[in-house]
UniProtKB/TrEMBL annotation:
<comment type="function">
    <text>Cadherins are calcium-dependent cell adhesion proteins.</text>
</comment>
<keyword id="KW-1003">Cell membrane</keyword>
<dbReference type="GO" id="GO:0001764">
    <property type="term" value="P:neuron migration"/>
</dbReference>
<dbReference type="GO" id="GO:0007398">
    <property type="term" value="P:ectoderm development"/>
</dbReference>
<dbReference type="Pfam" id="PF00028">
    <property type="entry name" value="Cadherin"/>
</dbReference>
<dbReference type="GO" id="GO:0042074">
    <property type="term" value="P:cell migration involved in gastrulation"/>
</dbReference>
<feature type="domain" description="Cadherin">
    <location>
        <begin position="166"/>
        <end position="273"/>
    </location>
</feature>
<dbReference type="InterPro" id="IPR014868">
    <property type="entry name" value="Cadherin_pro_dom"/>
</dbReference>
<dbReference type="GO" id="GO:0007416">
    <property type="term" value="P:synapse assembly"/>
</dbReference>
<dbReference type="GO" id="GO:0007498">
    <property type="term" value="P:mesoderm development"/>
</dbReference>
<dbReference type="GO" id="GO:0008013">
    <property type="term" value="F:beta-catenin binding"/>
</dbReference>
<keyword id="KW-0130">Cell adhesion</keyword>
<dbReference type="GO" id="GO:0034332">
    <property type="term" value="P:adherens junction organization"/>
</dbReference>
<protein>
    <submittedName>
        <fullName>Cadherin 2, type 1, N-cadherin (neuronal)</fullName>
    </submittedName>
</protein>
<dbReference type="GO" id="GO:0030057">
    <property type="term" value="C:desmosome"/>
</dbReference>
<feature type="domain" description="Cadherin">
    <location>
        <begin position="274"/>
        <end position="388"/>
    </location>
</feature>
<feature type="transmembrane region" description="Helical">
    <location>
        <begin position="720"/>
        <end position="751"/>
    </location>
</feature>
Length: 910
């Protein structure tokens, strides 16, 4: 019968009330099935004589053994005791027990077959002696704690005095998670005075009368201390209580005694890993014994006992390649290390381990376990060199081209992409001594881009054979041996193209004198075609000639003049004139340019002029004269020194002025007479330069003669300011001009507004003067195309005008009057058919006197505005339908807003 069945039968026993024999049979079965091997008591408290002899039996330990296996007993932590095979404890030497201390020991039981180990503690206390003279006999019956506070001291005179002294009680051990019936007795506490007095016992402290309250209770009469419910060491590991003994009046008869209750741990908590999944990494190719990572688990049980001592173990490894045991774990620390070689990221990128933690020092039978997942990522090292996908590469490129990709060199690398162990670096090791090629790396594809960086001339070299090597950005890992050098051969073919002709020398410099006449041959400027394998003709043309002085023969490159070369031209800089020519050959055409630098030598081709051209002088000659010089565009050899002289004509020049020579560059001009009236005078001066063939020129010096102050400065401007045209006057004039312009602008705007008012065809007043609903004004000045269709023949024949009112004025259909009679007087024919002006004047007078003349009332539909207006109706729709006279003078009595209508319809010759 299994345990579960026994528990079910016991439950049935309680429910159905079975007989006593059945109950005893089930109890015996329960004992057999539910028996747990081990000591029957966790602790033993023994009272013994104060003096013990060697080999004296102290007490027996009882061991419950359901399986009846062979068990061996041993005593630990004390050399004063030994134990027999039956569990009897003997003293191994004479022993003296103190009155105020307990001797502690441990008894171990071990199964000889399974090596399973159990233990229990014992405390050996000295029995108190019997004391008379009124003291109660001190006795102790296990399990109980006696209060031996009262002791007897005999003095020298024979008197006896009682004193109090404390006694430290050994801790009480209570296993957690007890399944016994509660309350469960722990120990009995009693005083030696309970024989003579009625005492009351109590306990205080956390767990008794302090939170958590009610865990421990004491029988106030018997002193039996009990626990009321299972204890949890992980919640509270120990309790500190104080036991009190008082009489019936509440008077303390003994000093309080401290009681320590330790909660003995049981293995009731599984290990818990700090993470569900642990992540670690190790480089590929790591040697055995390389540290990988650490996994950690915790157990709430007591770490000082086997219940909280954990052991780690690897349960599984996935994948199991190249070995099923690539890693091992330190069973105590949880450190995972490599145990086998062969970690290769290119084959296995990561491993998944299931790690188990078991308490009870890893005992698979009694220990509790838990598992966690460990992911170990294999990191990459450079253990694979780049390998070219083929042994040879080739490409073509046009000559003289640069920054052109000739070929793409491809490699493969098994290392992790886009890392330094994967990225390739290409190097040309042979075939390019002048450095015409380079091989940058494409970071995305890891290809080598063979690029031309220097122009290559087909006529010099037609092909290249390059030897290229590929390596990684970082060196290979230690111990990696290359099977062969990763090199490849790249053949490059140069293609011939039509190259531009080249002038030689370029630029070309010539030196000649200025002033060459048109048609002069200067030089020949030709270009050579670098294409030796193409037959082509070169043609020349002019590209840049700012002064348009030269021309070039398109066939032979001879350059000649088409205008006179002038060194003093603004296009000549530093005596040099540059012209650019172009040479063209082949199809398609290739162009080359060349520059001709012409250095122009100076000749004396410019006459000097007086400088400055205008000067000032006082009316009366003073001590200071006027210094003048000459300007000559020629160079210094064809310019100064100059010769200055006054011209003899007119005669008053030499009479009024005198010119003295200072040096080769300057001369002085003075007044020869005492004074000269203010004004502008032109003094002719002849200047001659010092050229090889001297040139002379007569220049007129403009001399302004004026009155001077005592400093010798002209005072003409001061007189003008004194006359009233000062700064304030000028500002006032400007302000007046601005005001005048504003007035003119306002007048023009007012005139335009007045014209619009005259041309408006409104029945009543302007929208600005209307106090009723606003009338939208659209400035309609005509009726469309029909208003432009005038019958000019009626101007020639006035008598043929229609007699109806609808024929008068502008004939718009929406303004045609409802009546047919008019008050126009009958007019005779014009005295002369061409006298149109008189006819129009008469028609105007008639229209002014006719109330039915335009503008007509028009029927306009608006929104309903209400009724019973005190102003009445202004419309003439209800007036007479004929063209009879109608008086509008009453409109003037309606106020100033209607006076315009009164003036308009009031009649009169005006």
């Amino acid at each position: 019968m299994r345990r579960r069945e026994v528990w079910m039968l016991m439950a049935a026993l309680q429910v159905f009330g079975l007989s006593g024999e059945t109950r005893r049979w089930l109890s015996s079965k329960q004992e057999m099935l539910l028996c747990e091997r081990g000591f029957t008591q966790k602790e033993y408290i023994i009272a013994a004589k104060q003096e013990l002899a060697k080999g004296q039996a102290v007490f027996n330990v009882t061991f419950q053994d359901c399986s009846r296996g062979k068990v061996r007993f041993e005593v630990g932590q004390s050399a004063d005791f030994r134990v027999s095979e039956a569990g009897e404890i003997y003293t191994s030497r004479p022993l003296s027990l103190g009155r105020d201390r307990a001797v502690e020991g441990v008894v171990y039981a071990q199964d000889l077959r399974t090596k399973q180990l159990w233990k229990t503690k014992f405390f050996l206390l000295a029995k108190p002696q019997q004391v008379k003279h009124g003291d109660a006999t001190l006795t102790q019956h296990l399990p109980e704690i006696l209060f031996p506070w009262r002791s007897m001291i005999v003095k020298g005179d024979g008197t006896v005095r009682r004193v109090k002294r404390d006694w430290v009680i050994p801790p009480i051990n209570v296993p957690e998670n007890s399944r016994g019936q509660f309350p469960e007795d722990l120990v009995r506490i009693r005083s030696d005075r309970d024989k003579n007095w009625m005492l009351r016992y109590s306990v205080t402290g956390p767990g008794a009368d302090q939170p958590p309250t009610g865990i421990f209770i004491i029988n106030p009469i018997s002193g039996q201390l009990s626990v009321t419910k299972p204890l949890d060491r992980e919640h509270i590991s120990n309790f500190h209580l104080r036991a009190h003994a008082v009489d019936l009046n509440g008077n303390q008869v003994e000093n309080p005694i401290d009681i320590v209750i330790n909660v003995i741990d049981q293995n009731d908590n599984r290990p818990e890993f700090t993470h569900t999944v642990f992540n670690g990494s190790v480089p590929e190719g790591s040697k055995p014994g390389s540290f990988v990572m650490t996994v950690t688990a915790v157990d709430k049980d007591d770490p000082k006992t086997a219940n909280g001592m954990l052991r780690y173990k690897i349960l599984s490894q996935n994948p199991q390649s190249p070995s099923s045991n690539m890693f091992t774990i330190n069973n105590k620390t949880g450190d995972i290390i490599t145990v086998a070689a062969g970690l290769d990221r290119e084959k296995v990128t990561q491993y998944t381990l299931i790690v188990q933690a078991t308490d009870m020092e890893g005992n698979p039978t009694y220990g509790l376990s838990n598992t966690a997942t460990t992911v170990i990522r294999i990191t990459d090292v450079n253990d694979n060199p780049p390998e070219f996908t083929t042994d040879t590469f080739s490409g073509d490129v046009d000559e003289n081209r640069v920054n052109v990709i000739v070929a793409n060199l491809t490699v493969t690398d098994k290392d992790q992409p886009h890392t330094q162990a994967w990225s390739a670096v290409y190097r040309i090791v042979a075939g390019d001594p002048t450095g015409r090629f380079s091989i940058p790396t494409d970071p995305t594809t890891n290809e080598g881009l063979l690029t031309v960086v220097k122009p290559i001339n087909y006529e010099e070299k037609r092909s290249f054979m390059l030897m290229v090597e590929a390596q990684n950005e970082v060196p290979l890992a230690r111990g990696i041996h290359l099977p062969r050098q990763p090199t490849v051969t790249v053949s490059v073919r140069i293609l011939d193209v039509n190259e531009s002709p080249e002038f030689s020398p370029n630029p070309k410099s010539i030196k000649l004198e200025e002033g060459l006449p048109a048609g002069s041959l200067l030089t020949t400027f030709t270009a050579q075609d670098p294409d030796r394998f193409m037959s082509q003709n070169v043609r020349y043309s002019k590209m840049y000639d700012p002064a348009n002085w030269l021309q070039i023969d398109p066939f032979n490159g001879r350059i000649s003049t088409i205008a006179i070369l002038d060194r003093e031209s603004p296009y000549v800089k530093n005596n040099q004139y540059n012209v650019t020519f172009m040479a063209t050959d082949g199809d398609p055409a290739a162009n080359g340019t060349g520059t001709l630098q012409i250095y122009l030598m100076d000749i004396n081709d410019n006459a000097p002029h007086v400088f400055p051209p205008e000067v000032e002088m006082c009316e009366k000659p003073g001590p200071n004269a006027i210094n003048i010089t000459a300007s000559d565009p020629d160079l210094s050899t064809n310019a100064g020194p100059f010769a200055f002289d006054l011209v003899g004509r007119p005669l008053d020049v030499r009479r009024n002025w005198t010119l003295s020579h200072l040096n080769g560059e300057y001369a002085q001009l003075r007044l020869q007479i005492s004074s000269l009236s203010s004004g502008i005078y032109e003094v002719p001066i002849m200047i001659t330069d010092s050229g090889n063939l001297p040139m002379s020129n007569t220049s007129h010096l403009r001399v302004k003669v004026c009155q001077c102050d005592h400093h010798g400065d002209c005072v003409d401007m001061e007189r003008i300011i004194a006359a009233g045209l000062g700064t304030g006057a000028i500002i006032a004039i400007l302000i007046g001009i601005i005001i005048l312009l504003v007035l003119v602008l306002l007048f023009v705007m007012w005139m335009k507004r007045r014209d619009k008012e005259r041309q408006a065809k409104q029945l009543l007043i302007d929208p600005e003067d209307d106090v009723r609903d606003n009338i939208l004004k659209y400035d309609e000045e005509g009726g469309g195309e029909e208003d432009q269709d005038y019958d000019l023949s009626q101007l020639q024949q006035p008598d043929t005008l229609e007699s109806e009112c609808m024929k008068v004025g502008i004939r718009r259909l929406d303004e045609r009057p409802l009546h047919h009679k008019h008050q126009y007087p009958l007019r005779s024919a014009a005295p002369h058919p061409g006298d149109i002006g008189e006819f129009i004047h008469e028609g105007l007078k008639a229209a002014d006197n006719d109330p039915t003349a335009p503008p007509y009332d028009s029927l306009l539909v608006f929104d309903y505005e209400g009724s019973s207006s005190t102003a009445g109706s202004l419309s003439t729709l209800h007036s007479s339908s004929s063209c009879e006279d109608q008086e509008y003078d009453y409109l003037g009595d309606w106020g100033p807003r209607f006076r315009k209508l009164a003036d308009l319809f009031g009649g009169g010759d005006d």
